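Today's session is about reading a structure prediction critically. Students often jump straight to the picture, but the first step is always the sequence itself: look for stretches that repeat, for charged clusters, for runs of hydrophobic residues. Only then move on to the predicted structure, which in these notes is written as discrete structure tokens rather than atom positions. Here is the chain we will use throughout the hour.
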Amino acid sequence: MSQPKAGDKAPDFKLPDAQGQTLALKDLLKKGRVVVYFYPKDDTPGCTVQACGFRDGWAALRKTGATVVGISPDGRASHAKFAGKYDLPFTLLSDEDKETCKAYGVWVKKSMYGREYMGVARTTFIVGQDGRIETVFEKVKPEGHTAEVMAALSGKQVAAKK
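Below is the predicted structure for this chain, in token form.
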């Protein structure tokens, strides 16, 4: 599937968290905007930097009223271990069948050392309370990403509408 752009309706999802509770985007949106970040794998270097960046910026992120959720194909047990190891204060959702990753266009062909494989393209979406995507961050670099998200949430960056 192609990746949704700013202005598009965000694909809904219903995914389990580490405790087995199912969370749906539509329910999260009742509280305000939602930062949905897709990452490849729990407890790997880049993913740890990214998750810890959101953790370290948690107080400022909460002040914006936004909810943060991380989504990867890892299972619930892996998420529980990762969140516990790094004291992550936000929810990690398990997309083991990769249907949500596909709906958001982040399940893509990747290449490393000449080998091709399918994996998650590190991508973040800010979804407005109306259910429309406000901002898309593609090819995310883990270092400094929380600051980019904060700037977008505070209105210091305007996403290009397509």
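Discussion point for the tutorial: Residues 157-162 have pLDDT under 50 and may be disordered.
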